Automatic annotation (TrEMBL):
All copies of domain GHMP kinase N-terminal, residue ranges: 86-150
Protein's name in the database: Mevalonate kinase
InterPro entries assigned: GHMP_kinase_C_sf, GHMP_kinase_N_dom, HddA/FKP, Ribosomal_Su5_D2-typ_SF, Ribsml_uS5_D2-typ_fold_subgr
An example Gene Ontology molecular-function term: ATP binding
Domain of life: Bacteria
UniProt xrefs under Pfam families: GHMP_kinases_N
Organism the protein comes from: Arenibacter troitsensis
Keywords: ATP-binding, Kinase, Nucleotide-binding, Transferase
Length: 312
């Protein structure tokens, strides 16, 4: 048995903001992928994954009992496959903000959900929201609380535009210019980050009026502008808004940025060689970078591992 492939994702814009109805834009990233397998199941990684799937199957049984109208699974088949040693064979790094648990959730839904919503259907907003709700409940097993966007992106393998929490749609983004100097890149922080503690930290900050005002008047304002600019291909305006967004994140989300990157973050804003932002919840994993000249950025970030994901 070799299941279909599910890819990682990159939330280009909207981290934290989408909790409070900012716009967001998420794209599939095909460099990393995963699939459910039952061959070669004797490795340490396969055994670890199988144990996690076993616990996940129990969680899904409880979820189904609580809310049969939302989703039902072929639990008998799932439990049999798990007992036979099934695991999720994945190249998606965990704790890096590129959707490792999202791809797993999408794979399990695809294989075991009864009366599943398929990618081939006419995906109305209602269907997208139902999928997002199902995936949010499923992925909560891994994160404590999930928007459901990561699995949705992985399942559909399409860019997703988030207008607000109850208004999402699949979208198209400008075709890449592979000869272009502008780029979106991933910067490896060299350490993993955990989503749950970072989200908890954010929710604690949200109790303060000043933080809430900053989020609404600055963070969400610049995030929304970046989403509009990116989708419409307004590169010049995009980089102006990115600079503002990078500044707001450095000033107000410092705990989510690994300490050793604070200086590098500011250097980008000061020189305009690149702008950094959080990739997912932060705290480690990947940092997302944008540059109008990838060669300049590579020079400025010499010694760091850069992975280009999109060219302007």
């Amino acid at each position: 048995m070799k299941g279909p492939l599910f890819y990682s994702k990159i939330l280009l814009f909207g981290e934290y903001g989408i909790i409070k109805d900012s716009k967001g834009l998420s794209i599939p990233y095909n460099f990393f992928k995963g699939a459910l397998k039952s061959k070669n199941k004797d490795s340490e990684a396969a055994r670890k994954s199988n144990a996690s799937l076993r616990a996940f199957a129990e969680y899904l049984k409880d979820l189904q009992q609580k809310d049969q109208e939302l989703v039902t699974f072929d639990l008998e088949a799932l439990n049999k496959d798990v007992a036979d040693g099934m695991y999720f064979d994945s190249s998606i790094p965990q704790g890096y903000g590129v959707g490792s648990s999202g791809a797993l959730v999408a794979a399990v839904y695809d294989k075991y959900a009864i009366e599943k919503i398929t990618v081939l259907e006419n995906l109305t907003r209602e269907k997208l929201l139902k999928l997002k709700a199902i995936f949010g409940k499923m992925e909560s097993f891994f994160h404590g609380k999930s928007s459901g966007l990561d699995p949705l992106n992985s399942y559909l393998s399409l860019p997703i535009l988030i207008n607000s929490q109850d208004n999402i749609e699949s979208t198209s983004i400008p075709s890449q210019n592979l000869d272009g100097k502008g780029a979106v890149f991933l910067l490896d922080s060299g350490s993993t980050g955990e989503t749950a503690p970072m989200v908890h930290l954010f929710m604690e900050q949200m109790k303060h009026e000043g933080f809430r005002a900053m989020l609404k008047d600055q963070f969400i304002k610049h995030t929304d502008a970046c989403v509009e600019d990116f989708i419409n291909g307004n590169v010049k305006s995009l980089f102006g808004n990115l600079k503002q967004l990078s500044h707001v994140v450095l000033d107000n989300f410092k705990p989510m940025i690994p300490v050793e990157f604070h200086k590098l973050w500011k250097q980008g804003i000061d020189t305009n060689d690149y702008y950094l932002k959080l990739c997912g919840s932060g705290g480690g994993g990947y940092i997302l970078g944008f540059t109008e000249d990838i060669n300049k950025a590579k020079k400025a970030l010499k010694g760091y591992n850069l992975e280009v994901v999109y060219n302007f």
